[in-house]
Amino acid sequence: MKAKITYCVTLSLLLCLLMAPSYAQEVTFHGFVQGNISARVTGNETADPEEGGDYLSGEERLRGEVTGSSGPSDFVLKIDLVHDSIAGEDGIDVREGYIDYRSADYDVRIGRQIITWGAGDLLFINDVYPKDYGALFSGQPLEYLKIGSDAAKIAAYSDLLSVELVVIPFFEPYHLPDPKRFFLYNPMPGLPQTIEEPRRETENTEIALRLSRQIARFDTSLYAYRGFFKLPGMKTDDPVSPATAILFYPQLSVYGLSLQGAFANGVLSIEGGYYDSLDDRGGDDPTVANSSARYLVGYSRQFWTDFTAGIQYYGEAMQDYSRYEDSLPAGFPKTDRLHQLVTLRLTQMLKYNTLRLGLFSFYSPDEEDWFIIPEVRYNMTDSLWTSVGVNLFGGKNSTTFFGQLDKNDNLYANLRYEF
Amino acid sequence: MHKYFTAVALLVMSFLGPAALYAEEPAEIIKKSQEAFFYPGKDMQARVKMALIAKTGQERLRELTMLRINGSGGDQKYFMYFHNPGDVRGMSFMVYKYPNKDDDRWLFIPSINLVNRIAARDSRSSFVGSDFTYEDVSGRDIEADTYKYIKEDALEGKPCHVIESTPKSPTEYIRKISWIDKTTYLPLKEEYYDVQGALYKVFTAEKVEMVGGLPAVTKRTMANVKSGHKTEVVFEGIAYNVGLSDDLFSERYLRKPPEKWIK
């Protein structure tokens, strides 16, 4: 990991140096200093000797953003220097670092880049790009939910259609909350874990395609993806006398579509996707997620001046459910054939948009669990803002996605100075 | 005999009211005013600097590039790229404006590379935290109000039509009085009265200059006389008919703003 970071930074700096002379005329530099702290308020403390305790995150970041352009090409570099106060560690987080080339009807972007697709609000079907749920659950600013992909993106445009092709040679999974800091459900307690990521081989290159155009004032996209699940499956090294639990990322293809546009005085969002679980097409391998059809419908509307409300319904219908039931080992929690989520977002802007009162909530009627985030954000000046909020988790069972986080309710605060 | 006719004519005119004195209908004047204010040229490029000034004197600044292109039948497309301050830097905002129909609006958030549709029903929401509303930036539907010719007046020596607009459906003001320059048709001053009938917002065109043969308001202010908050807006480097193409107003450029035009 450390070697990888060093490699990225060295490469980025080299690129900057190489390009500096030709970009000299049009280089800009910005950034911010940010503090984030999140403390568990349930009184439960994790047992980890070094990182246990009440704190889920506590860090300072210095962001540097350099951009430069020259003719049809430009570059962007966004680097965070991070001090993690809990672990007492310093690190470098290369958020993005890429080069763009633009011609009349196609664009190329190469390097570490954040890509966001789809029509969902904090719900992702065709957005198969890496995310950091640890950041979301500890109240870091929303941008930290997304992680850059080291990728090449080629986009071509015509009056008829826009086409985007993304090629990702290096697999990056979802970052889940750290068990050293969060109380989490572990289906195989007591077993040491190892992680098996797809090997760095050309055949493991992820490929994603998006075709888009406007149809009757609706932004319409079709998607196709071939790669891997970003949430791991779990198996053992030996089914009879297991010594190690292995986290691994099965192969996946996704085919989907999305629509977003004006409807009934608001905005209607529709998205669907078929998750084809390539390593378990029969649905009888309990360690690999079955294929599923996923869909969401969302509607948001401004109800009065500076107040917006948005609601979403999400469904995930498992294929080959009876085989899943038959193959599930005894003692493992069983999920329903149809997993559903309902989300609600409320936003009120006040005092010339300097004060924002926000609420986002997830609720699953089948798993009977929830995640609620009330937040207040205040811009003291143009360059200084703060946000304070609470992450509230809960559920009937401690084995569901949000239910397992029940003991991790936390109060968080962010402070950022931009320059 | 001649004197008699004149007297009768004057009498009739005074009964008919000031509207009859002037040949133009008030709705027609508002239409011309909107054309002069929101539609000049085939397209427009400008650097916009906004100062949001609180009663205490604390200032916040917004700096953006605005691009506009006119379509057919009153349709327009707007593209705005934010240069400052830091928390909105790099954001782009795109509007497809249709007369008498809700706009299509998109916002691009660079930190997560997200293009999002924005619910656009309430055009009276504050534009980027200023005293101006979305409607003040791109125009209000002509059909949304009824109009009355109040009088002729002069502002700083410029003869004006004074028109009263009354919203047909409830909004946060019950009437607006506009002083419209008889020569340029630009609004020089507008007074907004709240539901209690009290004056609460005043728009002033502080500076009008000729740009490429067209009169343009290059400095404007919206003051909230109740809260003491005001917003001063300066349009720098306005250029009309620069040759913007329709495809600039698309998701491609929302995600990656056109360097050539946003500088």
How does this model look, in words?
The complex is a heterodimer of chains A (419) and B (263). Chain A has a single domain, classed as Porin, CATH 2.40.160. Chain A is 8% helix and 52% strand. Chain A contains 3 helices and 21 strands. In chain A, the strands form 2 sheets. Chain A has an 18-stranded antiparallel beta barrel. A 3-stranded mixed sheet of chain A has the order 8-12-11, with no helix packed on it. In chain A, β11 and β12 form a beta hairpin. Chain A is globular and about 65 Å long. Chain B contains 6 helices and 13 strands. Chain B is α+β, with helices and mostly antiparallel strands and 263 residues long. Chain B has one domain: Clam (outer membrane lipoprotein receptor (LolB), chain A). Classes of the chains: A mainly beta (419), B alpha+beta (263). Chains A and B meet through β13, β14 and β15 of A and β6 of B.
Helix-strand blueprint:
The complex is a heterodimer of chains A (419) and B (263).
Chain A (H helix, E strand, L loop, with lengths): L1 H22 L3 E14 L14 E16 L2 E12 L4 E14 L3 E8 L19 H5 L11 E9 L4 E7 L24 E4 L9 E10 L2 E11 L4 E4 L8 E4 L2 E13 L2 E12 L14 E13 L2 E12 L2 H7 L10 E13 L4 E10 L4 E11 L4 E12 L14 E9 L1
Parallel strand pairs in A: 8-12
Antiparallel strand pairs in A: 1-2, 1-21, 2-3, 3-4, 4-5, 5-6, 6-7, 7-9, 9-10, 10-13, 11-12, 13-14, 14-15, 15-16, 16-17, 17-18, 18-19, 19-20, 20-21
Chain B lengths: L1 H15 L1 H4 L4 H13 L4 E11 L5 E12 L5 E9 L7 E7 L2 E9 L4 E4 L16 H5 L6 E11 L2 E10 L7 E7 L5 E7 L5 E13 L2 E11 L5 E11 L10 H5 L3 H4 L1
Antiparallel strand pairs in B: 1-2, 1-13, 2-3, 3-4, 4-5, 5-6, 7-8, 8-9, 9-10, 10-11, 11-12, 12-13
Q: List how many beta strands of chain B DSSP finds.
A: 13
Largest sheet of chain A: 18 strands, antiparallel, barrel
CA distance, first residue to last residue of chain B: 69 Å
The CATH architecture assignment of chain B turns out to be: Clam
CATH class of chain A: Mainly Beta
Distance between the termini of chain A: 30 Å
CATH architecture classification name of chain A: Beta Barrel
